[in-house]
Amino acid sequence: MQRRLKKEWPYHMLLLPGLVLTFIFSYLPIYGIVMAFQDYNPGLGFIGSRWVGLENFQLVFQTPQFLRAIFNTFYISLFKIVLQTLASVSFALMLNEVRLTSAKRIFQTIVYIPNFISWVIMAGILLNLLASDGIINIVIKALGGRPVQFISNRSVFPWTIILSDVWKTFGFGTVVYLASITSIDPELYEAAVIDGAGRWKQTRYVTIPLLVPIIVLMVVLALGNVLSAGFDQVYNLYSPAVYPTGDIIDTFVYRLGLQNGKYAIGTAVGLFKSVISCTLISLSLWVAYRFANYRVF
Amino acid sequence: MHTVTRGMKVFRVFNYTAIILVCLSCFLPVLNTLAVSFSSPAAVSTGKVYFWPVQFTTMAYEFAITNGKFLRALWVSVVRCLLGVSINLFMMITTAYPLSKPKSVFGARNFYMAFYIFTILFGGGLVPYYILVNRLGLMNSIWSLVLPLSVPVYNMVILMNFMRGLPPELEEAAMVDGAGQIKTLFTIILPVLKPALATVGLFSFVYHWNDWLTGALFMHDPRNYPLQTYLQTLLTNFNDMLRQSGSDYYQLLARMNEQTGRAAQLFLGLTPLLIVYPFLQKYFTTGLVLGSVKG
Fold first, then answer.
1. Residues B80 and B12 in one domain
2. Where are the alpha helices (DSSP H) in A53-156?
3. In chain A, what are the domains?
4. A214: which DSSP letter?
5. Are the Cβ atoms of A32 and B289 closer than 8 angstroms?
6. pLDDT more than 70, % of chain A
7. pLDDT tens-digit series, residues A85-106
8. Residue among A19, A25, A182, A189 with most chain B CBs within 10 A, to mutate
């Protein structure tokens, strides 16, 4: 035992600084969850504030704005995941047909750019493009259509969010899928050619079936995060006019808990989200491990 | 072997056109912002500017770089990125190395790993986090922008996977020569891991550069805002800032307006990323493939 400790102590020492900081900033806030069960008053602190049991939860679940935010979160997230996957896979398959490796790399690089642009800057760009006198509406009008209020019309807004997110992030999926297409054994294609398969049949019967496991894996991992519908994006694009269809759990917590100073209720909603997310993420990691032998750790 | 049929030719033309259109859609919005930032307000407000400046002017940029708020926010972001990336790299290296050892070599490995995994799965939520940083007295301090994010777990796992991929002989040789683990890490392991360190370092830079929420949460004084938090305030009230710039407000309006001014500052906020991107993209597939889809 002592010999073991003597041999391993440098590892413990190396880990120490990270452990301390992670404990402070990731574990200590968990103690703050007690606020969810209190009528929290910053002046009285965690010890002095009155305990109210589940009152905060009862209150928030009777709030139509919160129920609406839950619905919007699922609606936006699920459509994002479905369309994201479709867009990434199709574009990866299209790029796979490009023979020139250098051209392929250039295309891949370009579609990955928007991923790295912050949502603040992207929102600035989108607000400009999608304005009622912005370029997109100029094009719509030139084609004889009627201008669309992408940002302020509440029935259009969720789709502005979904599609702009798909557009911004599909490049990531494309890179992942293209990397797995490249790793497919070329002999499989040669065998298919001998059987008389053209490019289309090779894609249909070799590439796509071999991509299915990785697609399932990516979708499962994304489903674990279904309750995070994109705080940065929604917060920087929405306005009170579109709250009914655009407000999501995270923006709801931020507005209520911090901007309006309702700490206790904000914590209660945060806890509700954490518990469900924790279950979903654990489940998705378990499924990914069980069926795709994928391990993060 | 490759007989090119007519159908294939048609397909290829169609395919290339579609790909190029998609690429343009990812690229043109940025180009449009750039064009607007160099155009006159009159041309912009009459909808004449697409992808090339009309009535070229650099007024919006002159306004940005003579504007104290923009420069101060830029400085905060630069300091934050230097501090943040150094701390992140140090923490990722010192954490990933012990965790890359199998349980047989480092007995407590799985315990520590579970400690970090738990932080991905569960947290106290936004409000307790805010109250904690407040209680620690970090409000309005640059440390509030870097310390809470000091160990990025996902990137640490990427680095850990890189370390696991190294041949064990590399380390064994050094150990035989009598070097301890810490010396081996810094003299043998790190030099061969330069590409991996570049990958996680750049990811960490992008994160710190792009994050606006931390600044909005912990900086009560707008003078301490990092660039993205400052830019976020511009989305709603650029005109206020123009008006605050003093007596020459109307003179200024003739040569720039809200749209051109905002476009210029957004573009400046984007430039550092466009500069590091080519370096980043050399590594991103390795990082992604190793980290996120390890089969």
1. no
2. 55-61, 64-96, 101-112, 119-129, 135-142
3. 68-292 (1.10.3720.10)
4. H
5. no
6. 99
7. 999 999 999 999 998 888 998 8
8. A25
